[in-house]
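Minutes, structural biology subgroup

Action item carried over from last meeting: produce the structure token record for Lipid droplet-regulating VLDL assembly factor AUP1 (Strigops habroptila). EB confirmed the sequence was re-checked against the source entry. Recorded below for completeness.
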Amino acid sequence: MEPPAAPGPERLFDSHRFPSDGFLLLALLLYAPVGLCLLVLRLFIGVHVFLVSCALPDSVLRRFIVRVMCSVLGLCVQQSDPRLRDTGVRVYIANHVTQFDHNVINLLTSCNTPALNSAPGFICWSRGFMELGVSGSRAELVDSLKAYSSHRENPPLLLFPEEAATNGRAGLLRFSSWPFSVSDVVQPVALQVLRPLVTVSVADSSWIAELLWTFFVPFTVYQVRWLPTVPRRTEEPSEDFALRVQELLAMELGVVSTRLTAADRTEHMKRLRHTSLLPFAPAPSQALAARHRVPSSLAGAPEDVRVAAMVRQVKEVLPHVPLEVIRIDLAQTNCVDTTIANLLEGRVSFFPDSKEAGTDLPAPATSQAPAASGIQGSAAEPSSKAAAKQFAKSPVERHLSLQERKRALYDYARRRFAERSGAARLGGP
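Output recorded by EB:
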């Protein structure tokens, strides 16, 4: 039996808050008045929960009281077999689903999570992060955490090697190796989050928005499962140690262990925002299909090989565009379809490659950009009707004519790209 294919970033991160199902969307609209009342009420209760958690010392009694008060806020925390939790371990390793995972696990046991992305100050402290005063490299952070863990009176560390929250349904991000350099024995913690009506977390949402949505929905259930401790093998590198723990957590959660990182999440959100701003942007499913039309034999190839394949695809559709221009734009978009749209829409200026485009390219008759003249030269096949039109006297008519030519060029490029991709698939094994 073949292992399941690794999911792409579009399956690991949710970019929309509301459900796509019509019935769930109707239920959300009917629930909205009740949710708004709960939101206002829970804001006042949340202030009291914060004050109580600050006033009481860290103890079993404090965690019990705060946990009961959090249930009023809609945060229901469940743990399976708490006897598996090792009180002597110094580092907990958990998957990351929401921006409040560390607060939830802190309701079950005393632990500290260092602040990595939050600015130091009152907000960082009020969110439950531990400030180390280290703003340098990861090596300095690891040394500081080792010094912290060497004092047995300090609570254990709770670390999230994914370094970015996923939706928790499809897969785990690649674990960073630095958390596994702190201690030779770690205890994995499997975390699952369930919430009705709306998405558990949105990739580019702030923690304030996530908190308000948590107060809005009727409840959010956190399920915490403690796994047995995992020691480091003899002379095992931190990278291999991290991969082994990642595989254990993926099996426990029933998801796939991927090689995507937090940087891939950032690039994915940039591509989504960039695609949504294009005037003739394709649908997200079409853009994803175009981005994954790289042959399967190159799926695991090095980065330069994958980029070269993408450059070749764009070059086949737009032969008059220089290779260097295509390569520079692909480095920013990492998407074949978006790069083609940028070149056709004139967002990227270039001088047509005469060796590729031929010598029959017409010279620009107006003060259009060099890219526009090259595009018009390649449009002889798809839009002969538009090329045959006379120069309009009215500025409005000239604008409409330009838009028609641009749309025809874009349609032609997409058809040619689809035909070449289809031919490549039919010619493959």
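Discussion: The beta strands are 75-80, 91-94, 113-114, 129-130, 157-159, 171-172, 185-194, 220-226, 230-231, 256-257.
Next step: EB to file the record with the rest of the batch.
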